[in-house]
Amino acid sequence: MENATVYAEDDDVKENVVEDSTVGNEDKTRTGIWGQIAGTAGCLRYLVASGWSVARREMVLSVSGLISALITTLYPFAIAGLVGGLARHDETLIIFSLAGLAVYSIVPSFLSAMGVHYRLRVADKIGHHFDREIADYLSRPRTLSVFYDSKVADALGLLIARKGTLGQSFNILGNVAPLFISQVVLLVLAVLTDWRLIFVAIAGLGETLFQTKVMAWQAEADDASAPYVRQIQQLVSAGLDPQMSADLRTLNSQSDLHEILRKRVHNWRAPIHVRDNKQAAVSIGSSVVYYAVAAAVLISMGVDTVHGHVSIEQLTAACALVPKLTNSLAMVLASVTALGSSVHAVDRYLWLASHIETMQANEANNNNESANENDESANKNEESATLPDGVASQQDTVVDGYSAGDGAPIAVCPHQSLFNELRYGIDVDHLTITYPGHDSPAVSDLRFRIPAGHVLAVVGENGAGKTTLSLCLLGLLDYDGHIVVDGKELSGIGNWHSRVSAVFQDFLRPRMIAAEALTLGCVDGHDGVFGSAEVAAQALSRAGVEDVLEALPDGLSTPLGLEDGGKQLSGGQWQKIALARGCTRPHPLLLVLDEPTSALDPESEKRLFSAYERIAKDNARYGGITVIVSHRLPSTLLADEVLVLDHGKLVEFGSPEALLRADGYYAELRRLQAAGYRDGDGEAESAGEPEKIGDK
C-alpha cells in the first residue's frame, strides 16, 4: 500500500496526517476486505481532521445528531413497557413508558435538526477547504507538466464531476455514524431481549459487511468511467461556447457532436450500470435472507409466548425491534454506499495531493542541485566573469542540422547580477522536451545562444515546436539538457517567473473590469497595482494599443464581456488587451510574444511592430531578451537572430540577412509567404512586407 502524506490546515499550522490510501492510484489497488477497510479509514480520518481544522465549533455541535440517534433506540422498549403495563394494569410502568415516548417524539427531532444544520455548515466549509487546496496544489509546481498528466486529468475530471461531493462526504459521514452507533446499540438490546434475535442480527450484519465489496465495485466503476467524464465535459463545453458553436453551425456538425456525446455518455454509464446491477443483486438477495430469518424468529417467539415461555413485553419489544433494525439497516446501507462514492473522491484528492507533492519534491531536489551548481560556478568565476570568446558572434552563424553555439563554452557570471539585469544572455545546450505520456520529443537536441539585449525570432510551420520552446524558456516545462541564464541553470533559479513576461497565442480572456483585466498578476510585491487605471493606461501605451479604449464606453472601468452588462470585444480587441497585459511588468529579463498579431488587422499589426521595437530597445538597456514566436516572417525584421524550427529540430540560426544570403529553409519560407501575399489582396501584401514596418 502506498503512503500518502497530506496536510490539514488549522489557521497557520499544517498538521501532518499520514494515511494508507490507494483507491485513486491505478498502479496499486487494495486487495482484500481489510485492505479496503484500512484505506477507507484513512480517508475518513483525513476527512474528520480537515473538518476539525476548519470548523471545530460546528463539529462539536453536530454531535447532537448522535445523541438524537441514541434516544431513538429507546422506542421499542417504551412500546414494550406500555403494552406490559396495560396488560398488568401497572400505572407506574405506563407513566414511565409514556414519558419515554414523549421524549422520543420531541427531543430527537430538535437534536436531529440541530445536528443536520451544523453538519451542513461543516460540509460547506470542508467543500471550500478542498476547493482551495486543489487550486493550491495545482498552482504549486513551477512547470505545466502536471496539466499534461492524463492521470491528473482523470482525477480532476472526477472531482469536478462530483463538485460538492468532498464537502458533502462529511454530511454523509454524519448520517452514517449515528446510524451505525444506534444500530450497534439496537443489536445489543435485541440480543438481551431474546437470544434468538441474534440470528436476525447476524443476517443484518452479513449484508452490512458485504458493502465493502459494493464500495470496491463503485471504485472500479469510477476508475473506468473517469476518462469519459473528462471527454464529456470537453464536448459539453464545446457546445456551450459561442465561438465553437459558430463553427459547429457553420459546418452543420451539431448532429455529429450529439452522436459523439451520446457514445461517450454510453461508455461513461456502462460501468456504472454494471455496478448498479451487482448492487441490486446483493441488496435483493440479502433482504430476502434477512426477512426470512426475521419471520422465522418472530414466529418462534410468538409460539413461546402462547405457551408462556416468553413474556408479552419481550414479544412486543422484538416486534418493534425487527422493523427498526430493518429501516436502520436500509438507511445505513444507502448511506454507506453514498459514503463509498465520497470516500473514493477523497481518495482521489489524496492521490492528487501526494502525486503533486512528489513532483514538487523532485523539482525541489533538481532545483537544489542546480542552485548548488550555480553557486559553485559563480564562486569560481567571481573574480573574472568575462564573456567567453565566440558568444557574441553567434548571430551571424547559419547552421543546418545543428544549433549555433556548438562547441562554445557556457558563460558564467556572478549571481548578484541575475535579477537586476542580464549581462551575458541565455545558453541552450542539448535541449530536449518530451511531454508526459508521449514517446517522441516535441523538440530535440537544440543548441543556441541568445546574447543579452537581443531579439530572437522563432519561426517555423505549425507544429514545429515554437510554443513548446518558448514555454521552456519561461520555465514552464520540464526539460532535458541545459538552459543557462547568465551562467545559472534555469531550473535552479527560484523566482525566474517574477522576472519574465509573456503574451500567448491562447491568451486569457478574463470577464472583469478592463483595468483589472490589464493588471491581472501585475503585483511585483507592491500594493494597489491590481486594478490601477494608471498602470493599465501605461501598459496600453507601452504596447501601442491605446485605440482599444475607443471600444470601451466607460474607459478602463468598463466590464469586459456581455455577462455583466459590459462590452463584448472582438478577437483582435481581446488580443490587444492581452498584449498590453504582457507589458505591465517593466523591464522583464525575458519577454515572449507568441503569435502576437495573429488576430490583428494589417494597420494595427504595423503599429504593434513599431511598439515592440521600442519595448525591445527599452528592455535591451537592462539586457532583457525579447523572443517573438511566429509563423509570419515579417516579425523577423525586429530580430537580431532568427531560429528556424522544423518538426522539433533546429535547422537554421542566424541574422535575417545571413539566413537570406544562405538561401536555405528560411529563405524558402520567405519566398513562399511573399508569393502568398502577392496573390492576396493589398492589405495582406502590406502586412507581409517587412520594409513597411520599420528598419532596425
UniProtKB/TrEMBL annotation:
Keywords: ATP-binding, Cell inner membrane, Cell membrane, Membrane, Nucleotide-binding, Translocase, Transmembrane, Transmembrane helix. GO terms for molecular function: ATP binding; ATP hydrolysis activity; ATPase-coupled lipid transmembrane transporter activity. SMART domains: AAA. It is found in: Cell membrane. It is a multi-pass membrane protein. Signal peptide: none annotated. It comes from the Bacteria. The chain crosses the membrane at residues 33-54, 66-87, 93-116, 172-192. Belongs to the ABC transporter superfamily. Siderophore-Fe(3+) uptake transporter (SIUT) (TC 3.A.1.21) family. This is ABC transporter ATP-binding protein. It comes from Corynebacterium glucuronolyticum. The lineage of its organism: Bacteria, Bacillati, Actinomycetota, Actinomycetes, Mycobacteriales.
